[in-house]
C-alpha cells in the first residue's frame, strides 16, 4: 500500500506510460545529443555523480562538474576516484550517442555482447589503471569476463561459476533483444514494463560477469537499452542506495515490484526534470518538479501554487502543474520592490 500522499505503484506506472506516449506523439520522441546538448549534459553530470557514488565514490556534484567540464581535479580526493568518474562519464557519453545515433557498424540489434564488453572497458580502464583488482589476472582486465568465482553475497545470492559466464551473458543479450522486439510489437509482456526492465537489470547483476564494476556497467547497459527503446535514461540517486539494493534483493527472490517502481520513478523524473521542459514551449504545463531551479525549490513552488501566487493547477493525480512562463511571472512579482509604508 502506498504511504499517505504517495501515489500507488500502479499509478506511477500509468503516469509514466502516459508521459512516454506524450513524449513520442507530441514531441517526436527523445531529442538527440546534437539537438539538445544541454539536456544530455545535465543528465550526464548527474548520472556520473550518482552512479559512482552508489559504489562509494566521494566526489560531490560540483567536483564532478569541474572535472568533466574543465578537466580540473577540484578537492583532495584519491586519484582513483577522479579516474572512476572520468571513465564512467566517457562510457555514459558513448551510450547516449550510440543509443540515439549509432555508428554505421551497428547491426541494428537492441544490444550486442561486444557493446556490453566495450562499456565495461571504457568505464573501468581509467580506474583500473591506478587501482586494479588485487586478484585479477592479465585476462581479467576491463572488457574481459572474470575467471574467478565470487563468493555468495551477504544477502544470499551467489553468482554462477566463472566458466558459465560467457554463455550466460550471451543468453542475457538474446533475452534482452527478444524483450525489445516484444515491446516494439506492443505485445503483452505479462507484467508492467518497468518490472520487465527491473528483471533484465537484476539478471545482469546476478551473472556478475566482471571481476569489478558490475553495478556501474549494469546501469550503463540498462540506459543503452532504455534509450534505444525510446525511453529516458535513469539515474539511481545516491540517497536511494538502500532502496535500490533492497529492490535487487527482492528481485533475486522473483519479486521485481520494488525495483520496477524505482526504475519507473527514475524514468519519469528525467522526463520531468530535463527532457519535457526543454522540448516543450514556455507555456506548456509541466509538473512543478520540472520547474525547480537554484532559486525555487519544489516546496517553495508548491506553497506558491497552493496560496494562489503561482498560476498552477492540481490534476486528478494530485500533481501540481505550471509552466516556465508562469514561474517567470511569479519570480518577477516576487522580486518587485513593494512600496515602503509611510513613516
Automatic annotation (TrEMBL):
Domain spans labelled Fido: 111-268
PROSITE patterns the record matches: FIDO
Xref: InterPro entries: Fido (IPR003812), Fido-like_dom_sf (IPR036597), Fido_containing (IPR040198)
Superkingdom assignment: Bacteria
Pfam family, one: Fic
UniProt cross-references to PANTHER family, sorted A to Z: FIDO DOMAIN-CONTAINING PROTEIN, FIDO DOMAIN-CONTAINING PROTEIN DDB_G0283145
Protein name: Fic family protein
Organism name: Streptomyces bambusae
Species lineage: Bacteria, Bacillati, Actinomycetota, Actinomycetes, Kitasatosporales
Amino acid at each position: 500500500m502506498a504511504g499517505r500522499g504517495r501515489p500507488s505503484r500502479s499509478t506511477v506506472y500509468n503516469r509514466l506510460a502516459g508521459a512516454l506516449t506524450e513524449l513520442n506523439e507530441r514531441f517526436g520522441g527523445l531529442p538527440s545529443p546534437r539537438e539538445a546538448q544541454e539536456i544530455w549534459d545535465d543528465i550526464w553530470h548527474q548520472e556520473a555523480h550518482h552512479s559512482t557514488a552508489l559504489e562509494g565514490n566521494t566526489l560531490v556534484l560540483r567536483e564532478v562538474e569541474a572535472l568533466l567540464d574543465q578537466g580540473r581535479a577540484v578537492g583532495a580526493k584519491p586519484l582513483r576516484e577522479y579516474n572512476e568518474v572520468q571513465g564512467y562519464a566517457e562510457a555514459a557519453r558513448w551510450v547516449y550517442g550510440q543509443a540515439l545515433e549509432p555508428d554505421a557498424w551497428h547491426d541494428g540489434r537492441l544490444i550486442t555482447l561486444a557493446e556490453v564488453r566495450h562499456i565495461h572497458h571504457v568505464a573501468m580502464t581509467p580506474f583500473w589503471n591506478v587501482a586494479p583488482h588485487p586478484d585479477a589476472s592479465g585476462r581479467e582486465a576491463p572488457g574481459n569476463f572474470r575467471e574467478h568465482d565470487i563468493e555468495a553475497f551477504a544477502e544470499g545470492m551467489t553468482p554462477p561459476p566463472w566458466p558459465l559466464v560467457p554463455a550466460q551473458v550471451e543468453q542475457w543479450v538474446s533475452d534482452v533483444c527478444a524483450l525489445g522486439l516484444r515491446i516494439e510489437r506492443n505485445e503483452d509482456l505479462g507484467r508492467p514494463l518497468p518490472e520487465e526492465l527491473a528483471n533484465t537489470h537484476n539478471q545482469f547483476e546476478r551473472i556478475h560477469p566482471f571481476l569489478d564494476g558490475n553495478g556501474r556497467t549494469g546501469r550503463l547497459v540498462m540506459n543503452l537499452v532504455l534509450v534505444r527503446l525510446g525511453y529516458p535514461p535513469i539515474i539511481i540517486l545516491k540517497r536511494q542506495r538502500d532502496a535500490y539494493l533492497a529492490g535487487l534483493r527482492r528481485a533475486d527472490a522473483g519479486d521485481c515490484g520494488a525495483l520496477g517502481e524505482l526504475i519507473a520513478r527514475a524514468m519519469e523524473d528525467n522526463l520531468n526534470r530535463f527532457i519535457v521542459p526543454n522540448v516543450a514551449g514556455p507555456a506548456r504545463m509541466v509538473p512543478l518538479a520540472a520547474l525547480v531551479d537554484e532559486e525555487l525549490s519544489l516546496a517553495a513552488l508548491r506553497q506558491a501554487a497552493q496560496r494562489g501566487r503561482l498560476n498552477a493547477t492540481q490534476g486528478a493525480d494530485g500533481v501540481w502543474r505550471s509552466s516556465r512562463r508562469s514561474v517567470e511571472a511569479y519570480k518577477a512579482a516576487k522580486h518587485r520592490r513593494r512600496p515602503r509604508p509611510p513613516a
